Automatic annotation (TrEMBL):
Keywords: Oxidoreductase, Signal. It comes from Granulicella pectinivorans. Belongs to the Gfo/Idh/MocA family. PANTHER family: OXIDOREDUCTASES (PTHR22604), TRANS-1,2-DIHYDROBENZENE-1,2-DIOL DEHYDROGENASE (PTHR22604:SF105). One of its GO terms (molecular function) is oxidoreductase activity. The lineage of its organism: Bacteria, Pseudomonadati, Acidobacteriota, Terriglobia, Terriglobales. Residues 35-159 form the Gfo/Idh/MocA-like oxidoreductase N-terminal domain. The keyword Signal applies. Residues 1-27 form the signal peptide. This is Predicted dehydrogenase. PROSITE patterns: TAT (PS51318). The keyword Signal applies. Residues 167-287 form the GFO/IDH/MocA-like oxidoreductase domain.
Length: 369
């Protein structure tokens, strides 16, 4: 996926809150240097989304693999032209330090392993792109940030939605006052999880749907409003006693109050199909954003006219890029930040804010149990 300079300017400005500065390679009109990624973990999100996305993009390439399954790694390496010498196990992971063909790692492991392998990557002198949630605890998240700062390496958390133009358009409508004074936000996201998923193991996942898909709702509320919640109240429940939810919640709902007075209500589940959606209500109109998934984001908004009787402005904006296009954008964005020395928008600090909020949600739910 080739992103224009204008589009990268928008992503850099909106997501990273910094001006766009073309890399030296672009300024000279030549081919840009590519960032070389080591993929850590060959699960679904790596094989079906990030790796094909990086291949589709312009500024990244897969040059190394870390896996506990040698045969699987050899097969994937052959597909991406990765030499056998650049296939690592988890035991010899630290040897990536000695591989000059690795600039950054992509961490796609169970949540409980994010901190360890991100910190080891930073210690090995590599930049880190880590899937969300960034870790299982606030302390682990803080340790990740500290390790990358000490190493002088970038840390990005994979909030791909923050890089999608339709998502950014929606935030612009909210923050520029197009909807008037914002009063309330509502969001939901969930699915019916299969038995045997590692996400139902508290030690590996850190929690249930909140840590997995509920984080989309939490992050979207914070991102759109540009504020941090000052009050949180939450409840969790288990309805299906079929063995899936012996360790984690099946359902979670929470409300948040923000400094501006905006109230948000969110819900997430592992027990039913729940369309990813966020709806923002303002004094002049309402916008609805659907599909946090990989197949395109749909924005609809109704903005009232200035005068009584004026026809409302209707916005119907569908992001038609199909999977793995969002991952191509994510890979290219992080690569661009590395190449041009730009601050990362979806940074470790951004991930830490979500971690702190999620811990407050769980604390509130425990008190309300």
């Amino acid at each position: 996926m080739n992103l224009s300079r204008r589009e990268f300017a928008r992503l850099a400005g909106a997501a990273a809150v910094v001006p766009f500065a073309p890399s030296a390679a672009f300024a000279q009109g030549g081919a840009a240097k590519k960032i070389r990624y080591c993929v850590v973990g060959l699960g679904r999100i790596s094989l079906q989304h990030f790796m094909p996305g990086t291949k589709m993009g312009s500024l990244g390439e897969i040059t190394a693999i870390v896996s506990g399954h040698r045969d699987k790694a050899l097969k994937v390496a052959a597909e991406y032209g990765v030499p056998e010498s650049s296939i690592y196990s988890y035991e010899d992971y630290d040897k990536i330090r000695d591989n000059p063909n690795i600039d950054a790692v992509y961490i796609a492991l169970p949540n409980s392993m994010h901190a360890e392998y991100s910190i080891r990557a930073a210690n090995a002198g590599k930049h880190v792109l880590c899937e969300k949630p960034m870790a299982n605890t606030v302390k682990e998240s803080e340790d990740m940030i500290a390790a990358c700062k000490v190493a002088g390496k970038k840390l990005m958390i994979a909030y791909r939605c923050q890089l999608v133009p339709t998502f950014l358009h929606a935030r612009d409508l909210v923050q520029k006052g197009s909807l008037g004074t914002i009063q309330a936000v509502e969001s939901a996201n969930g699915f019916n999880i299969a038995k045997g998923e590692w996400r139902c193991n508290r030690k590996l996942a850190g929690g249930g749907p909140l840590m997995d898909v509920g984080i989309y709702s939490l992050n979207a509320c914070r991102f759109f409003l540009g504020e941090e919640p000052v009050g949180i109240n939450a409840y969790t429940s288990v309805i299906d006693h079929d063995g899936r939810f012996d360790e984690v919640e099946e359902n979670v709902v929470w409300t948040m109050k923000f400094p501006s007075g905006v109230l948000a209500s969110c819900s997430s589940t592992y027990g039913a199909s729940m369309e990813g959606i966020i709806r923002v209500h303002g004094s002049k109109g309402t916008l609805t954003l659907t599909q946090f998934g990989y197949q395109g984001i749909h924005l609809q908004a109704r903005i009232n006219g200035v005068n009584r009787g004026d026809p409302p402005q209707m916005i119907d904006d569908l992001e038609e890029e199909k999977d793995p296009a969002q991952f191509a954008r994510e890979s290219d964005y992080f690569s661009k930040c590395i190449l041009d020395g730009l601050p990362v928008g979806p940074s470790g600090e951004e991930g830490l804010k979500d971690m702190k909020a999620m811990m407050r949600i769980y604390e509130s739910a425990a008190k309300n149990a």
